[in-house]
Amino acid sequence: MSVSSMRTTSSRQVRPAVADWIRTQRWYSSHTNEPSFTRVGLWSLTDHRHQVDLEVHLVLDESAPSPTLYQVPLSFRSAPLLGGDRALVERATVDGETVYIYDAPHDPAFARALLALMLDDDSAPGELADEVEVEGHHALTSTEVRVADSHVLRGEQSNTSIVYELVHPNGKPAGPVICKVFRALSDGANPDVTVQSALSDAGSRLVPRTVGNLSGRWGDPRVEGGRASGHLAFAQEFIPEVEDAWRVALRAAEAGESFSALAFALGEATAQVHVELSRLFPAREATRGDIDGILGSMRLRAAQAYADVPALATEREAVDEVFGMAERASWPAFQRIHGDYHLGQVLAVPGRGWVLLDFEGEPLRPLAERSEPDVTLRDVAGMLRSFDYVAGSLAGTANAERAREWAHEARDAFIDGYSSRSGVELRAQRALLDAFELDKALYEVGYESRNRPDWLPIPTSAIRHLAHRPRA
After folding, report:
1. What does DSSP assign to residue 173?
2. What is the pTM of this model?
């Protein structure tokens, strides 16, 4: 089957049905604006069974002040994909023939070709390309495996992940792999790939083992010179049938069971990853510009929180004092960190302990900022806020008071574990840590006021507590 009559490499238009479909996806970020889509690039993969046309369209949306470039993989079939109804983008009629267009990650042909491009040195992108160059890289010694099954992981918002079941030629399982297809593309290396790969290559068991990645160069009008480069997809070890730390912690809080030992171990694991990152990536002393930049962003976030929840304006003076104390404090070195750290970013793996995931950083921050050195206290503060969210989610229940005590004990144990492994006494950096935790709570106010108003008391209570907490 050929779909050349449906589009040509010179055409920049996005099919109306595809445009309508993009607008409904969770990874599409501009739901409040009328989209303005243009296809700026395209590359293809080869289905060696010669049954499916596989294309990846790069679609620029200029509807927002900051345009976003989306990666949109599509598969074209002459007959329906078995079980593919949920992934159907369009059923089109071309020259009297029916063509079925699917969200390609759900198509086994695309899944096979994508992984082969990473793992097989003899595999290459398809012949069709427009302004895009693609190259696969594998982190492990290439071994002969085949895909027995694949499916898309549900629930993701910013990317699309394909889970593979791999087998050796003799039929024995080769271990599952998960491949994250990045939906929003930016110029520059993705920290999820670079940071986790560096830890994995160094032998850390605190992150999933890296399998490979796909990088590319493409035409991008947002970039000076019109050419951008970066990561398109990332494959890593998949750890199935385990719970994340949020579920483990919430179950313990609901049952009134102590989480102290697990929180202490989580603090140790967090500190160990920070130590490893400080060795693998350049670190530097904090400059006046670094400090002013971070405190400036904190004050902007506070102003936004007062606008979102006017009742918080009564805390303005106390909040300013917290930031003032941080400004006068001694700041640690800047280094690579996780950047979006909370209980949902950690897995509880039997026999292995805590395993940290998703080093992509805060999704709302520009990619270039997420790759910059930062303060490890940002990660610590994120985890402390996560413990408070466990307790806050139980507000209004019979366990509410006990959950608050549970969170206090878990926070203390996490700090103890972190301090023990890192050699850094976190309580001696309380002025800075309070500022970072307060900043996180101010961010949460904006998020909860727009998305989960019932949860707004969780961050507002934290802001009032942190702003008035007794200090030396």
Report:
1. B
2. 0.91
